[in-house]
Design a protein that fits this description.
The protein is mainly α. It has 18 helices and 4 strands.
């Protein structure tokens, strides 16, 4: 998918700002020790090459922030900014399914973003370090802590702005989600950067190599966390496959519902965290069907009243299953209420209007639209136009009226 016009403009501004900052630093500061420069440059490239991919393989977590902090303290703006930029430019992390990813097989816009972001963040941090009283080659505790905090804010702000512009999300919500997720690890890695700087000032290159161990330990901790998240996602997919195995007519249904629900949530400007919860809930919204008899799920004719009553149990069953899994607890209410109606005639709890969680109301529309536009054992699929008309006819009764308007507009677009 190509970049939007707004994303291109934002990226262009980032590149321009990075260029201006680097030219300014290049004219104001120097690197007198080439050996020192090469040492830290190689270290930066190595650390950035130890990138830990996130589950979607589109972004990753590195511990390069520690090297940024260390070089700001011991070498000043030019050393720090140059090594930070080279670290991103020359890194070659190994990513499962893609092999080694480097500048020659990475989309140009990603390389531009990564390098520009690193230069901007490191340049501002290093200039602030000096303006707040810090001196090159000397450690200033309060100043360094303040710079680390500011660096986290700037870094997450740039990433959040890029994500929000590219995906049409609210910046503040995206930033809050990112700052909550990355601040603890960034602060911990920044502290290791202080230790590395002190080791170099006191004992030289050998001590830096020695204290490289804690940095690798921090990376290992991140790696375990990401692997745990991958395990969570694998569990979600396995649960989804379980449902599809019981009800073959819903094969692919959850993935289509996820797309419709996320598109609607973005258009309705839901917070970033709510959209993430909605993604998971969409995949698992029918998990409760594993508690329904196969003969009812696979019945080729219309259901009797008793059979329909049995089917109506699946949201509550699904919510009960999910509530027992800690990392899925945030989506329990979405799954439980995705068959509520705006007029209060839905199930399992008969909620109405704004009492229905907005994520559940979005899921209701996405689920209903895909069900109407898919073949079922007892009827042929509606056309998209017929399904949209059905949504509009039932807006304010079965469906949230404002959400229906937005959904129709994005499907018709």
């Amino acid at each position: 998918m190509g970049l939007t016009k707004k994303t291109k403009i934002f990226l262009g501004l980032l590149v321009a700002l990075a260029f201006c900052l680097y030219v300014y630093i290049l004219t104001q500061f120097s690197i007198d020790n080439i050996g020192m420069f090469l040492f830290w440059a190689v270290l930066a490239v190595v650390v950035e090459s130890l990138l830990i991919p996130m589950p979607n393989n589109t972004v990753g977590v590195s511990v390069g922030y520690a090297i940024n902090i260390a070089t700001i303290i011991i070498g000043g703006p030019l050393l720090a900014t140059t090594t930070a930029g080279l670290g991103f430019l020359l890194r070659a992390p190994k990513i499962e399914g893609r092999g080694y990813v480097h500048i020659f097989n990475l989309p140009p816009h990603k390389s531009l973003f990564n390098v520009s972001q690193s230069i901007i963040v490191t340049a501002i941090m290093s200039l602030l370090y000096l303006s707040l009283g810090g001196k090159i080659g000397e450690f200033a505790l309060f100043t360094t802590i303040l710079v680390i905090l500011i660096g986290v804010i700037i870094n997450t702000s740039i990433i959040s702005a890029f994500i929000s512009i590219s995906n049409e999300l609210e910046f503040v919500d995206t930033w809050i989600s990112n700052i909550k997720g990355f601040s603890p690890s960034a602060l911990a890695v920044g502290t290791i950067g202080i230790i590395i700087a002190l080791a170099y000032i006191g004992y030289g290159y050998g001590a830096v190599i020695l204290f490289f161990g804690p940095l690798l330990l921090a990376r290992y901790s991140f790696k375990l966390y990401i692997e745990m998240r991958n395990l969570y996602l694998s569990t979600i997919q396995a649960l989804n496959k379980t449902v599809e195995a019981k009800d073959p007519y819903t094969s692919g249904h959850a993935n289509r519902v996820e797309k419709f629900a996320v598109d609607l949530a973005k258009a309705y400007h839901l917070p970033f965290e709510s959209i993430q919860n909605l993604k998971t809930a969409s995949i698992l919204h029918d998990i409760g069907k594993i508690g329904i008899h196969d003969e009812i799920l696979n019945k080729a004719s219309r259901l009797t009243q008793e059979e329909y009553q049995e089917i109506m149990r699946h949201p509550a069953i699904g919510a009960e299953i999910i509530s027992k899994v800690n990392f899925l607890s945030d989506i329990t209410t979405i799954v439980r209420h995705h068959h509520e109606r705006y007029d209060g005639k839905g199930y399992p709890d008969g909620l109405s209007g704004e009492d229905i969680p907005i994520e559940a109301a979005i899921l209701t529309i996405a689920d209903s639209y895909d069900a109407m536009t898919s073949d079922r054992p007892y009827r042929k699929a509606m056309t998209p136009e017929e399904a949209l008309s059905e949504l509009q006819n039932n807006a304010g009764t079965q469906f949230h009226p404002d959400l229906v308007k937005v959904f129709v507009s994005i499907i018709d677009h």
